[in-house]
Amino acid sequence: MLVSLHWFIFLLNLPVTTWNIYRFIMVPSGNMGVFDPTEIHNRGQLKSHMKEAMIKLGFHLLCFFMYLYSMILALIND
């Protein structure tokens, strides 16, 4: 996105990218990944993981329609 000078899209995706990098860096040693399958069913963790998943789903839906609009606009202008 930086090479093609799409600054707005880059700045829109930057917080999500940094959050994902932070989550993967902060995985405790011994865990299999971000979501530990043995502890995910604790009530507090499950609720927070579902909230995070819904926020990410909303963000990705917003990005999908924004990219779709940009693609249609680019096709019409050609």
What general outline do the C-alpha atoms trace?
A: elongated
Low-confidence blocks of residues:
none
Count of DSSP H/I helices? 2
Radius of gyration: 17 Å
Order of helices and strands: HH
Whole-number tally of structural domains: 1
How many angstroms does the end-to-end distance come to?
Answer: 21 Å
The computed structural class is mainly alpha
Strand count, sense and closure of the main sheet? none
Write down how many β-strands occur, each being a DSSP E stretch of 2 or more residues: 0
pLDDT average, as an integer? 83
Helicity range of the residues?
Answer: 55-70%
Percent of sequence in beta strands: under 5%
Q: What do these coordinates show?
A:
It is a single chain. This protein is mostly helical and 78 residues long. It has one domain. The model has no long low-confidence stretch (mean pLDDT 83). One of its GO terms (cellular component) is membrane. Belongs to the cornichon family. It is found in: Membrane.
SSE topology sketch:
Blueprint: H1 7-25, H2 43-77
